[in-house]
Amino acid sequence: MAAGRERAARLLRQLQRAACRCPSHCHTYSQVPERPTLGNTDYAFEMAISNIRYGEGVTKEIGMDLQNLGARRVCLMTDKNLSQLPPVNAVLNSLAKYGINFQMYDNVRVEPTDQSFLDAIKFAKKGEFDAYVAVGGGSVIDTCKAANLYASSPTSDFLDYVNAPIGKGNPVTVPLKPLIAVPTTAGTGSETTGVAIFDFKELKVKTGIASRAIKPTLGIIDPLHTLSMPERIVANSGFDVLCHALESYTALPYNMRGPCPANPINRPAYQGSNPISDVWAVHALRIVAKYLKRAIRNPEDREARANMHLASAFAGIGFGNAGVHLCHGMSYPISGLVKTYKPKDYNVDHSLVPHGLSVVLTSPAVFAFTAQIHPERHLEAAEILGADIRTARIKDAGFILADTLRKFLFDLNVDDGLAAIGYSKADIPALVKGTLPQERVTKLSPRPQTEEDLSALFEASMKLY
What we know:
With 465 residues, the chain is an alpha/beta fold. It is 43% helix and 8% strand. The protein contains 16 helices and 8 strands. The strands form 2 sheets. The protein has a 6-stranded parallel sheet, sandwiched between helices. Helix 6 runs antiparallel to helix 7, helix 9 packs across helix 14 (428-435) and helix 14 packs across helix 16 (451-460). It is globular.
């Protein structure tokens, strides 16, 4: 008996010595926060992501997936441009091959509004669908999430689920139908998250719906779909990945976020930085540093575009649970108050500031500001993006990261700040006013900010170079 126990103990010691040391399994990689929970801050975090399937040509399996789900009436959602392009054709071929009954809605608006959401919701309610397929970028996938939600909760008022303080921010308690998301851009990570963003036209500001319940059932990541993306769409989508990774990694730690929910259903989707999200954020940032410039400059670089497609999902897993902060919070009025700006490579009939561009233009100023808290993370990010930090002082972390970002953006021909897309100092009060309701994300900034701080950040972002 004693010999048996000794053999078991020896085997356990051998297993411990042979344990996997990769970042995902090594306990030394992401340290558990040292600070104990105090007062009414949270003490837990949870990870919620969609199932993910990756592979060249994997879109052909969607028809089988819908068969397996027993779907009898499917809503295929996309936009007018994509409806004529290979990604949608690949889905249509699969649906036809497996005899799937479907209706197509191709009226999704690029950078959706409350009205465009409502139009899609009306279509979904009328169709009484039992499954959804979204083929497109974040605009399409977010619109489809909203359509699925409100068709599944037909008596709910639109503002019931919209984030507070603009809406009521009620928790989602109704069961939703299966949703398969097929991203065609490498940016939003919407295929992994429970977030749907739109422009609320009455207030001229972006807001959204955030609930784990609305995340897609399955994300189909097929790198073939990124090969048709024009240069500026690749760039702006990639800037979203960049900021997702940077913001989630530098966000307020989850155990410093309050209040602690009385019921886990009320724990927000955006919880603050945590040891699991950290792994995904850093990995995504390394991919961006290596592949984004290549993906923008050479549409035939399949390796670069495929890796950026994965980076989008990786960053989505990170920020979808940790959250974002000031770059995104400030981006919403930048997009919502757009004047006459029309970006290159976007085939739209309305003015718009692409989401990734609106986010990245404030990034140098934001990270110079937030680096007072956790400067070591800001310095690590700068090093990943190419900065030489061998002689750097920790107190200079924010300035080093800001300069690194400016160089990165300059090399990629990004507009020279907010002034280049139509804003001036006279617009700053309105931009600040539009940021204030975004407390769902701004409160995750590691450094609290006043209205005066926000004004200074917008002013510093008017010109980058």
